[in-house]
Each structure stands twice: as C-alpha cells, then as structure tokens.
Design a protein that fits this description.
By secondary structure, the protein is an all-alpha fold. The protein has helices spanning about 10-35, 40-70, 75-95, 105-125, 130-150, 155-160, 165-180, 185-195, 200-225. It starts with 10 loop residues before the first helix and ends in a 10-residue tail after the last helix.
Length: about 240
C-alpha cells in the first residue's frame, strides 16, 4: 500500500494538520467545560463539542487526501459542512428557546437557508463551468437570508425582546461570526476560481475559515454558558 508523508514545506498541508489538532483540543475543552454550564446551556455546549468533533474527523481525512494527491478534498469538506453548519444553526435556536417560546418554523427557515447555501456551493465547485457563478449567487442568497433573519427577522426580535444578558451577548457574537466569519468562505470560493486559481489558495482560505468559525463559535457559547449571567436563562 502506497503512503505519502506530509511535506513539512507544504504550508497548506500543515494547516490541515494544525486544524485537526485544534478541533480535537476544542472538542475536549467544550465537553469538559459542559459541567460548568448552567441549565439549558449544557445542551448548547454539547452541540459546540459536536461541531468541532465532526470537523476533527473530517480534517484527518482531508489532510490525507491532500498529502496523497495534492487535490482539494471537496467531498469531505462539504460533508463536514452539511453536518456542522446545521448544528450551528441549531445553536441559535437553542439560545432563543432557552429564553422564550420559539416557533419551530424559525428553525426550519434557518436550516433551509443553510442548505441552499451549502448545496449550491457544492454544485458550483464540483460541476464548475457554467454552474460555477449561478451556484455561487444562489449560495450567497441562502447566506444573506440567514443574515436577514438573525439581524432584522424573527430571531433578532426574540433576542432583543426576551433575551437575558448572557443570551444577548451570545446571540450578538454568533451573528457577528455568521456575518464576518462566514464571509471568508465566499472569499475563498472567489479566490480559488478566479484567474490563475490554485487548490492551495482555496484550501488555505477554507481552512482558516473553519479554524476561526467553528472554534470561535464554540468559545462564544462557552463564555455565555459559564458566565454568572447564564443563571438568568435557566428554565
């Protein structure tokens, strides 16, 4: 069986390695810190650990694909996102449902927006050609809908009207990540497929985005879950 070791001079491959380790460390941290969380915040920390745990598993495989072939592990990456992005959407719903009665339709709308964003992105990257830019636009529409919902839609109104100190801090920080942090993904898409595009640029930007967004997302939940203000939202 042929094997190929990761080249230390391969900075993209090294980024896969670093993020693999970081995701494992974050998963362990969130799970251990769950005992310090208050009430329903324990579930939120469990979900945060699931996000980084799933990402860690996929990064181990993506690292091997890159080291062996030098090609983008597109399928593994989108399988990861199809599992972890909906879990991050669930985090918004969990925060809101801990402080108010929230209609299930809100969750399904946010989930639909995330699936449109991901499926369109996948089709654009796999098919490319005439699919590349129409799918990019459709994926952007899904992301912009999520931003609309968490800034001016029902989710935003529930947080503003019923939120506690801890929940508002978490909600505001999470929507900042979804807005600013998630913008790195379309940037990577653009940089990876415009002009003299290379798999190096695409994967380095995507890896950076995952490192920032998945771990930072969990850290925001952890900070809220273990704060003294979290007691206010225990039902």
């Amino acid at each position: 069986m042929d094997t190929k070791m990761l080249n230390p001079a391969d900075y993209v491959g090294v980024s896969f390695w670093i993020i693999s380790a970081a995701m494992v460390a974050a998963t362990f941290f969130f799970w251990v810190e769950r005992d310090r969380a208050h009430g329903k915040w324990k579930t939120s920390l469990t979900v945060a650990a699931m996000v980084t745990g799933i990402a860690a598993i996929h990064y181990f495989y993506m690292r091997e694909v890159w080291a062996m072939t030098g090609e983008s592990p597109t399928v593994f990456r989108y399988v990861d996102w199809l599992l972890t992005v909906p879990l991050q959407i669930i985090e918004f719903f969990l925060i809101l449902s801990a402080i108010a009665v929230v209609k299930a339709s809100l969750f399904w709308r946010l989930l639909a927006g995330s699936l449109v964003m991901l499926i369109a992105g996948y089709l654009g990257e796999v098919e490319q050609g005439s699919w590349l830019w129409p799918m990019f636009i459709i994926g952007m529409a899904g992301w912009l809908y999520i931003i609309y919902e968490i800034f001016v839609g029902e989710a935003s109104k529930i947080s503003a009207n019923s939120g506690t100190v801890a929940s508002k801090k978490a909600f505001n920080a999470l929507r900042l990540i979804v807005t600013v942090g998630w913008s790195i993904y379309p940037l990577g898409y653009l940089l990876g497929y415009i002009g003299a595009a290379s798999p190096d640029t695409l994967n380095l930007v995507y890896n950076l985005a995952d490192f920032v967004n998945k771990i930072a997302f969990g850290v925001v939940i952890w900070a809220a879950a273990t704060s003294s203000d979290a007691n206010e939202s225990v039902a």
